[in-house]
Amino acid sequence: MLASEVDLDAHALLPPRQAARYLGLSESTLAKLRSRHARGRGPRYSKLGGSIRYRKTDLDAWIAENATRSPGQAPDVLAVRDDAER
Length: 86
Prior knowledge:
Layout: E1 13-14, H1 16-23, H2 27-34, E2 46-48, E3 51-55, H3 56-65
Antiparallel strand pairs: 1-3, 2-3
Helix pairs in contact: 1-2
């Protein structure tokens, strides 16, 4: 189940299993991204009373931050058109 297939409240707090499923990753991959050696590589999370939780908004932000382009792909640029006559 990928991000586009899950309908969740934007502020939902997800346990690792659901977060991994939302991202299309295994739970062990998500745990590795949370590890001391991978600091900063995984999505933000909170530790509440010993339980790890992920906000859906943080998962979406992590997806956006890790988007890559194919070589030669044009950047997302807003084209401004000047229709005013000179």
